[in-house]
Amino acid sequence: MGKNLKLSLYVITDEKLLEGKDIGKAVEEVILGGADIIQYRAKQKSSKQMYQEAVIIKKVCDKYRIPFIINDRVDIALSVNADGVHVGQEDLDVEVVRRLLGFDKIVGLSTKNINQVEEANRLPVDYIGFGSVFPTGTKKDAQISGLEQLKKAVEISVQPVVAIGGINEQNIQSVLDTGCENIAVVSAVFKDENIRQNTKRLKEIIKKKNKMGFSID
Fold this sequence. Notes:
By secondary structure, this protein is α/β, with parallel strands linked by helices. The protein has one domain (9-211): TIM Barrel, CATH 3.20.20.70. It contains 9 helices and 8 strands. An 8-stranded parallel β-barrel has the order 1-2-3-4-5-6-7-8, surrounded by 7 helices. α1 (23-33) packs parallel to α2 (47-64), α1 packs parallel to α9 and α2 (47-64) packs across α3. It is globular. The mean pLDDT is 94.
């Protein structure tokens, strides 16, 4: 869509991992560690709670000029003037989301298989998420797509592909080796108190791959 998005390290918040923590501080830590884009995801919170947390995150993202995406909720995104929305296959249709947000905003779509990637090629989205690449604790019922399917998704997608699902320091290299340049993480950065260092280590691996001839933009 011509937005020149940088998606190389895509960090998604998790309400369970961040329970009892200062969400603004946690997001600031991942940004300082090298996150390129932030997605706020909360499945169990009320609309009021989501709005309040989204306001906090938006301020942090604006401070560092980092794009801020809301998962699923177009209304919350509009209410805080977020940079975009990420939707799944069972959420509001992409065409409707685009109509509500306009073409200046970012729209991302989750895909789980090659058929959905091919369909996304015909939709007004700025990027697709693909996975779950590996089993993940944040989505127990996630369909596992695997590395071979990810490689094929990267080959056929007309939009940037963001790999998601169970990616961590131990397996991120295998994901990058498929040709996928963009990695989404949740537990890998929020698993303990060392949020900034966790993020920094992942970003360094991505940068190292970039120096070997892959673009991370």
